[in-house]
Design a protein that fits this description.
- The chain folds into two domains: 104 residues, Phosphorylase Kinase, domain 1, CATH 3.30.200; 182 residues, Aminoglycoside phosphotransferase (APH), C-terminal lobe (Aminoglycoside 3'-phosphotransferase, Chain: A, domain 2, Alpha-Beta Complex), CATH 3.90.1200.
- 43% of the residues lie in helices and 14% in strands.
- A five-stranded antiparallel sheet has the order 1-2-3-5-4, sandwiched between helices. It has a three-stranded antiparallel sheet with strand order 6-8-9. A two-stranded antiparallel ribbon has the order 7-10.
- A hairpin with a 2-residue loop joins β2 and β3.
Length: 308
């Protein structure tokens, strides 16, 4: 008997149903029955790439099936590896309660995680004081220092290959991309460590005491340590209080501009980070203009884009 009835033949199909409580309730009820876990009604959580629902005191994450066009098996293993590794390191992350595959109309991989009673940085950022942001930045640095260390390979992703082939960069001018490709072709990644890869405002949770928790490890990768910094552009908007908490005495624009510059050019979401946080495509006809813009916002201590 089918428990999931929606048709998925490509990414747009998945996008139409992945937040649907009615579509996923029969499937997730069966998952919880198989795992001998108590089931209650589904509640939507922050949308992302996969189907994520609150189920009582747990969170069920159902990964997009292969028919969606996403390599969901790699995402599943990457997330499970990252959560398990982080938990073993004693980091503040959700505990994995169960994991597996359910065969229905499609094969779905899933994770069941403990629910963390907390809110996202995105929902709280406007109410945070400078002292709060400094503390959060400091906590994230403590997490990163313990998490971003060498480990065994856990997926096949290579940031340099992705940087050279990622079509998202086509949003920027040809002159910029010619310089970017030349830069990456000569870049030597001598040290690669585990990086979360997507420490954005939705993936940082804060409890009532403003203790930091980290979620969503599906974009983790072995990469140069600088890679982790790219998402901080999105998380902190270059806010001086938060950045000083993260970098401490090293928070000097002239010191960290090069690190951010390399991080953005390497990152899978680098083109989007530039266009969402730093300017329009026409602003960046060369790498030098990007580097100057990064230095400028670091020096200002806050992004001011489109009059904001």
């Amino acid at each position: 008997m089918r428990r999931f009835n929606a048709e998925i033949n490509h990414w747009a199909d998945w996008g139409r149903v992945f937040q649907s409580v009615s579509q996923f309730t029969p499937l997730i009820r069966q998952i919880y029955q198989n795992e001998n876990l108590p089931f209650t009604k589904l509640e939507n959580l922050q949308p992302g790439t996969n189907a994520v629902f609150k189920v009582g005191y747990s969170v069920c994450k159902v990964f997009a099936p292969p028919e969606s066009g996403l390599d969901s098996l790699a995402d599943f293993h990457t997330e499970w590896f990252g959560l398990t590794r982080a938990h073993a390191l004693g980091l503040p992350v959700p505990k994995v309660i169960a994991r597996g595959r359910i065969r229905d109309r499609y094969d779905f991989m899933y994770l069941i995680l403990e629910l963390i009673e907390a809110k996202s940085y995105a929902s709280l950022s406007r109410s945070l004081s400078d002292a709060d942001k400094t503390s959060i930045g400091w906590q994230l640095r403590q997490i990163a220092d313990r998490m971003d260390t060498p480990c065994e390979p856990f997926n096949q992703w290579d940031p340099l290959v992705d940087g050279l082939e990622n079509p998202c960069w086509q949003q920027l001018p040809d002159s910029f991309n010619r310089e970017r490709l030349a830069y990456l072709s000569h870049l030597q990644c001598k040290q690669r460590v585990y990086v979360h890869g997507d420490i954005n405002p939705d993936n940082v949770l804060l409890d009532q005491a403003l203790q930091v928790y980290l979620i969503d490890f599906a974009d983790a990768i072995l990469a140069p340590p600088e890679y982790e910094l790219a998402a901080l552009c999105d998380l902190f908007d270059y806010d001086a209080a938060a950045m000083s908490g993260y970098f401490g005495s090293d928070y000097r624009p002239e010191v960290i501009t090069e690190h951010f510059f390399q991080a953005v050019l390497l990152h899978h979401f680098g083109a989007n980070i530039i266009l969402n946080k730093l300017g329009t495509a026409d602003d960046f006809t060369s790498l030098n203009k990007l580097k100057n813009r990064i230095f400028e916002v670091l020096q200002e201590g806050k992004v001011h884009l489109n009059g904001s």
